Amino acid sequence: MSIPTLESIPTPPPSSSSSPKNPLHPALAVTNIKNHIPIVLELENFQFGTWVELFKIHARSHKVLHHIIPQAPGMETTTPATDDEKELWTTLDATVLQWIYSTISSDLLATIIEPDSTTMEA
Question: How many helices (H) and strands (E) does the chain have?
């Protein structure tokens, strides 16, 4: 009896379910931002620096830092070209905006919230 080798084991063709067209973006997997940023930013507290640093780390680790920090001149990312890219950008921006709104006090939220704003505007 021979021992099977990798070459002798048939490999099934890749299925569409194993490699989706649009894999889940890491930012969309966050279910509770307060697990990652336990500080509530308030108008009159001295934890702004800590909140900002935690937020930047979280955004960087979830590949959405460009939604809160503008790129340096000449380093800008390309504008979303396709409808799918535009939809993903809009969804990610709304997600990051929700993270901000969920980690600030009601008083601060009332100060910064604007209809149809983007994360960069908040």
Answer: 3, 0
